[in-house]
Amino acid sequence: MKDPDLAAFETMARAAVDSLPMPFRAAAAEVVLRIEDWPPDEILDEMEIDDPIDLTGLYEGIPMTEKSSSWPSPYPDTVWLFREPILQEWRERRDVTLEDLVTHVTVHEFAHHFGWSDDDIASIDRWWE
């Protein structure tokens, strides 16, 4: 069986965003969703990540809780999903569907847009245990 392509990943991620409750869905609509096979080298270097397989997703922007109309961001907020690292994690886990994993990574990254830290997310989401 062939691995899902970038378009299939985008379909899964958009379905996850569409399933968010209002008003989160409305706020998420303003975020650019990018699906790439691998994280760009610039991102890996900036985050000091040696192995690109370690980064499944990323929120890049200013969280809603920190936004200011007097100091707008020059770039749109972006959620990145990285296909190959997600596929690798899915193959290794074997206890979740690919759709569930893509949904989880998508919601996790959008939670950062809404102002949640990794610790905040972990306090209610035991996914990784």
In short, what is this structure?
The chain has 129 residues and is mostly helical. 46% of the residues lie in helices and 11% in strands.
Summary keywords:
single chain; 129 residues; mainly alpha; 6 helices
Description:
This is Metallopeptidase family protein. Pfam families: Zincin_1 (PF06262). InterPro entries: Zincin_1 (IPR010428), Zincin_1_sf (IPR038555). It comes from Salipiger mangrovisoli. The chain has helices spanning 6-18, 24-28, 41-47, 83-93, 98-113, 118-124; strands at residues 32-36, 57-60, 78-82. The chain is globular and about 50 Å long. The mean pLDDT is 90. It has a three-stranded mixed sheet with strand order 1-3-2. With 129 residues, the protein is mainly alpha-helical. Helices cover 46% and strands 11% of the residues. The longest helix has 16 residues, at 98-113. The chain contains six helices and three strands.
Shape: globular
What is the percent of helical residues?
40-55%
> Compute the gyration radius: what is it?
15 Å
Question: What is the string of SSEs from the N terminus onward?
Answer: HHEHEEHHH
Mean pLDDT: 90
SS-based class: mainly alpha
Q: Say how many strands there are.
A: 3
Protein name: Metallopeptidase family protein
InterPro entries: Zincin_1 (IPR010428), Zincin_1_sf (IPR038555)
